[in-house]
Specification:
The chain is an all-alpha fold. 73% of the residues lie in helices and 2% in strands.
Length: 253
């Protein structure tokens, strides 16, 4: 008799969370049988094998929405995917080589060696910022906006001048200050103040977005409420700022 697993057992076996397994089921990547007596999920050998393929594709950087077609892809399509992944790995190696050089120079400076130029420090800072954004938000951003859009946004960040970066940060501070003030006094996000803050936010996006899309702007604003990490950022001074910004963008974008 073939072994079957509960959702908790499969989570422990595979090293992923129960929540992730449920998400894959909602995305129609997994379809476990249900126990006739209690309705609990039961995962058989075929489900375990399919999960292994899903996890492999996720490690290759494939978006969740693109996994289902690839599970039934031909050998030729899989070869093309692996070739693309190899290119990504080579890019990652070049990135790591650059970080190693930066760290080595920083260590040399701390040990009394040659001082790292301000320009080099700024380039290293931007790289760390991009890497941190990828770590925290990359998977969701790629699923929502696509790999090409995220890669172009990262490229624009890495090529941003120090003056543009300062202006970008100052604009972010202006948005948060205006947003906090509007929420504190009970301004209507669909009114003139909402239009003004929406325009500021549009300008802020322009520093990293290759082209503006009202639809993408609205989708991003929705995530400010749907994703607790964004909500915490905007609500850190006054609760309700994230929802107010979302409503302003939905009304004026």
């Amino acid at each position: 008799m073939n072994r079957s697993y509960t959702i908790g057992e499969l989570a422990e076996l595979s090293g992923v969370s129960v929540r992730t397994l449920r998400f894959y089921e909602e995305a129609e990547l997994l379809a476990p049988e249900r126990d006739a007596q209690n309705g609990y999920r039961r995962y058989g050998r075929a489900d375990v094998d399919r999960l292994q393929e899903i996890l492999l594709l996720r490690r290759l950087g494939v978006a969740v929405r693109d996994i289902a077609p690839l599970l039934s892809a031909s050998d030729g399509e899989r070869r093309a995917l692996l070739a693309k992944h190899l290119d990504a790995l080579r890019d990652e190696r070049r990135r790591l080589d650059g970080l190693i050089i930066t760290v080595e120079r920083s260590l040399a400076e701390l040990e009394g060696g040659p001082t790292m130029a301000d320009r080099e420090k700024f380039e290293g800072f931007k790289r760390r910022l991009v890497d941190e954004n990828e770590r925290r938000y990359g998977a969701e951003a790629r699923d929502r906006f696509g790999d090409a859009a995220v890669e172009e946004s990262n490229r624009r960040m890495l090529h941003m001048s120090e003056a543009d970066y300062t202006a970008w940060q100052e604009l972010d501070a202006e948005i948060r200050a205006a947003l906090t003030a509007a929420v504190r006094v009970g301004k209507d996000p669909t009114g003139p103040e909402g239009a003004h803050i929406c325009d500021l936010h549009r300008r802020w996006l322009g520093y990293t977005w290759p082209s503006y899309s009202a639809e993408a702007h609205r989708a991003l604003a929705e995530s400010y409420v749907a994703d607790g990490r964004f909500t915490a950022y905007y609500d850190r001074e006054v609760p309700g700022c994230a929802a107010w910004l979302r409503d302003a963008v939905l009304a004026h974008a």
